[in-house]
Amino acid sequence: MGYKKCPRCELNYIRDDQQLCDVCSRKRKASDDDNEVLMCIECGENPAMKGKELCAACYKESLRQERLGKQHKTIAALDEMDNSDMEDVGVPLDEAEIPETEIPELDGSFDDDDEGYIDEDRENGDD
Q1: What is the distance between the alpha carbons of residues 69 and 84, in angstroms, rounded to a whole number?
Q2: What confidence tens digit (pLDDT) does each residue in 93-127 have?
Q3: Is the Cα dihedral 98, 102, 107, 112 positive or negative?
Q4: Terminus-to-terminus CA distance in the chain, angstroms?
């Protein structure tokens, strides 16, 4: 059993059956841990960004989803506004502002309830 110098540092002597000295072995293990590529926890396909658990694409998507979630909450809050509050809002109109000749035309244009309604009596000829 002979001794030789460590091929990496050339300072320490190692046995012939060893590849590196103890010091170089520890440094190598530490650098291997640092160089270990962490994969994205979301997609598992791309390497994760430094200091994050997600890759760049998944991180951008998560930010976009957060932004959309905030917008959705805002829209939902506006939708929850009670319509009865809107009915209380009134627009004061003077009868003099609308000429009496246009009132029948306006009544006819807003009378949408009869559209699509088929009078069964007329259809059957029961006038």
Answers
A1: 28
A2: 666 666 666 666 666 666 555 555 555 555 555 54
A3: negative
A4: 122
